């Protein structure tokens, strides 16, 4: 995980400009349709802060968390969003959220870290709260030459994790890569915590 964070700190500026303009509105709107008005929403692995700003513009109380200090600083400075540095695996909210947005960040967690992340939903997501998760489909688990760790997560595994955390899947959709990379597909899931 450390080498992955180091990588994002190193490329923070270029990553910011590459991702800040990506249009995620269709998926954001699908997720937001399940939220109450003025919901408390957190973006775990917020990167550029793009989605934090968008949820704020919708009238929600939005904030972000990211393990990369450099990306958090850019998000705060350039988009003026509320964001803090932290590890989504060990993070526990002082008060559970109405919504958790987890776009393309779960892919950097290993199996044990995923278990901890989903286990912590009991503290982090309100009963009746909604979570959005996107993971790359059909990738190899491992660390690349840049030191970035990614792990494969199938629809069945994601369903198992969510069920174990007391969440029921509301929507599942497979999308093309928003950055236009050929052959890359994303599994997008919206789920609701029972209660």
What does the secondary structure layout of this molecule look like, with pairings?
Elements: H1 2-10, H2 12-19, H3 25-32, E1 40-44, H4 50-57, E2 61-66, H5 69-79, E3 83-85, E4 97-103, H6 111-119, H7 121-124, E5 125-136, E6 142-143, E7 149-150, H8 155-164, E8 167-176, E9 185-193
Helix pairs in contact: 2-5
What characteristics describe this protein?
195 residues; alpha/beta; Rossmann fold; 7-stranded mixed sheet; two-stranded antiparallel sheet; 8 helices
What is the number of domains? 1
Beginning-to-end CA distance, first to last residue: 33 Å
What is Rg? 15 Å
CATH superfamily: Vaccinia Virus protein VP39
Helix content: 25-40%
The largest sheet has its strands arranged as: 3-2-1-4-5-9-8
Secondary-structure element order, as H and E?
A: HHHEHEHEEHHEEEHEE
Question: For the record, what CATH class applies?
Answer: Alpha Beta
Strand content: 25-35%
Specify the number of helices.
8
What can you tell me about this protein's structure?
The chain is an alpha/beta fold and 195 residues long. It has one domain: Rossmann fold. It has helices spanning 2-10, 12-19, 25-32, 50-57, 69-79, 111-119, 121-124, 155-164, and strands at 40-44, 61-66, 83-85, 97-103, 125-136, 142-143, 149-150, 167-176, 185-193. Strand 8 (167-176) and strand 9 form a beta hairpin. The chain is globular, with a radius of gyration of 15 Å.
């Amino acid at each position: 995980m450390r080498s992955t964070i180091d990588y994002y700190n190193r490329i923070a500026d270029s990553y910011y400009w590459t991702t800040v303009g990506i249009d995620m509105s269709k998926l954001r709107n699908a997720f937001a349709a399940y939220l109450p008005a003025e919901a408390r929403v957190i973006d775990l692995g917020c990167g550029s802060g793009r989605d934090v700003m968008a949820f704020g513009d919708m009238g929600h109380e939005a904030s972000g968390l990211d393990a990369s200090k450099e990306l958090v600083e850019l998000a705060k400075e350039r988009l003026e969003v509320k964001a803090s540095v932290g590890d989504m695996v060990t993070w526990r909210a002082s008060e559970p959220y109405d919504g958790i947005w987890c776009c393309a960040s779960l892919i950097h967690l290993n199996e044990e870290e995923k278990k901890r992340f989903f286990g912590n939903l009991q503290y982090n997501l309100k009963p009746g709260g909604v979570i959005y998760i996107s993971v790359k489909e059909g990738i190899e688990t491992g660390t690349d030459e840049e030191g970035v760790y990614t792990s494969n997560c199938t629809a069945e595994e994601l369903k198992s994790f969510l069920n174990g955390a007391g969440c029921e899947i509301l929507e599942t959709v497979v999308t093309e890569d928003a950055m236009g990379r050929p052959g890359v597909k994303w599994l997008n899931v919206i789920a609701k915590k029972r209660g």
